Amino acid sequence: MSQKYDFYTARAAEADAEADKAKLQNAKDRANRSAKAWRQLASREQAVQAKRIATAEAKEDARAEERAAAEERATAEAARSDLAPAHSWG
Question: Cα separation of 81 and 66, whole Å?
Answer without folding.
Answer: 22
